[in-house]
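hiii so um. not sure if this is the right channel but i have a protein structure encoded as tokens and i wanna go backwards to a sequence. like what aa goes where. can anyone help
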């Protein structure tokens, strides 16, 4: 008898369904997903041998999930309101005791809050640009912060609220931009030292035990295995580093920052280099910092960590943020481009993410679907035609 197919509920928020408020910024909800991404995920999850049911994240999912009783949720919900909106759906899944992919409420809420993430990174001695959080525009500026500075919303993604004016050169520009961020996004502004230089992002996969902790990654031992090894409980896998190729964009479109314009309006004409050219030593350091950020924020399964390399200080790396729900659009999202660059197609990536989540939560991983040999169809010989005598 064929084994029962496990049911995976694909939980997402579509940009086209986002509720809009009067006066909200033009890029509001740009972090949500498209039909195209959802369809690609549905195809990849089905190809891994699961039954897929798609659900839009929201308050109605509780009765729907109770009826459906899925074996696992593939959760990419970013939701619409609140400081911890990415934590809403995982919290519901935990209440309903449904295992799910990607990080848990605490890590998702933490990563959503960039200043809070930076406090955790700083506590662990991990390099992140010096910063100050502004709840109002007239707060005294920390004298340790030197211009140029970079201003962005404290809790957005997809470059929302990030454009050429994010780089400020004077106190007047700073106050104006901070006031705009607070009013437009109704949240604090994060002001950081502006790091001029290359921009690299690194995807990471795995839930290894303590023996592969970032703290053991300084002793010169090799670390980082294949994606398959990470999926089976081995050391972390680092996807090839991806660099934004700013030289290929028109200077009027970007002053060397990965803005909302580049990520959304110009998304079809993106310019990246993957694998980014990096010597083994700096690459290893970026991987160590990626693992460290992943672990100190309590992230699991898969995430992406964004860096800037300070061109005025020997390309010293600075951690900007961690994305525990990285974009998953094949051929477009940074993580997918990086995985494709090493020959891991979308279906394999998604299957791996499902299996990482299942192993982590004690859900038995179904045996690989065996390609059945084509059944021998018994030859039915034509009835002999009886010739009339
Ligand atoms: N301190 C900084 N110095 C230089 N550039 C910065 C700094 N902070 C942010 N940037 C630029 O702004 C972009 C967006 O910033 P960040 O990665 O924090 O935001 P995001 O919108 O959450 O990104 P994502 O799309 O990865 O979710 C970065 O990719 C980088 O180009
Ligand atoms: Mg980013």
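sure thing!! here u go:
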């Amino acid at each position: 008898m064929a084994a029962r197919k496990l049911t995976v509920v694909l939980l997402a928020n579509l940009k086209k369904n986002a509720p809009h408020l009067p006066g909200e910024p033009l890029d509001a909800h740009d972090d949500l997903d498209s039909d195209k991404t959802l369809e690609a995920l549905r195809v990849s999850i089905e190809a891994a041998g699961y039954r897929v049911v798609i659900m839009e994240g929201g308050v109605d999912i509780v009765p729907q999930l109770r009826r459906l009783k899925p074996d696992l949720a593939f959760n990419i919900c970013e939701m619409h309101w609140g400081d911890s909106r990415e934590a809403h759906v995982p919290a519901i899944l935990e209440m309903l005791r449904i295992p799910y992919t990607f990080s848990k409420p605490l890590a998702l809420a933490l990563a959503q809050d960039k200043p809070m993430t930076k406090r955790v990174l700083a506590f662990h001695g991990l390099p992140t640009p010096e910063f100050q959080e502004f709840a109002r525009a007239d707060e005294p500026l920390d004298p340790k912060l030197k211009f140029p500075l970079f201003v962005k919303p404290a809790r957005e993604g997809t470059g929302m609220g990030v454009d050429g004016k994010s780089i400020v050169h004077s106190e007047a520009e700073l106050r104006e931009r901070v006031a705009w961020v607070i009013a437009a996004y109704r949240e604090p502004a994060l002001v950081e030292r502006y790091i001029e230089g290359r921009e690299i992002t690194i995807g990471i996969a795995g839930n290894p035990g303590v023996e592969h902790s970032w703290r053991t990654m300084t002793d010169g031992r090799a670390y980082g295995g294949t994606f398959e090894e990470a999926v089976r409980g081995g050391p972390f896998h680092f996807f090839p580093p991806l660099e934004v190729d700013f030289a290929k964009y028109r200077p009027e479109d970007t002053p060397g920052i990965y803005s909302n314009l580049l990520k959304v309006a110009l998304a079809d004409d993106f310019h990246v280099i993957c694998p980014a050219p990096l010597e083994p030593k700096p690459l290893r350091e970026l991987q160590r910092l990626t693992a460290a950020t992943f672990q100190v924020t309590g992230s699991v399964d898969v995430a992406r960590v964004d860096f800037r390399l300070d061109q005025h200080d020997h390309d010293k790396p600075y951690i900007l943020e961690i994305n525990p729900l990285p974009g998953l659009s094949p051929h477009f999202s940074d993580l997918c481009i990086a995985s494709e660059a090493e020959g891991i197609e979308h279906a394999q990536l998604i299957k791996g993410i499902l299996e990482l989540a299942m192993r982590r939560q004690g859900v038995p991983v179904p045996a690989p679907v065996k390609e059945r040999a084509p059944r021998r169809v018994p030859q039915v010989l034509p009835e002999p035609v009886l010739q009339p005598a």
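oh and Confidence is low (pLDDT under 50) at residues 384-389.
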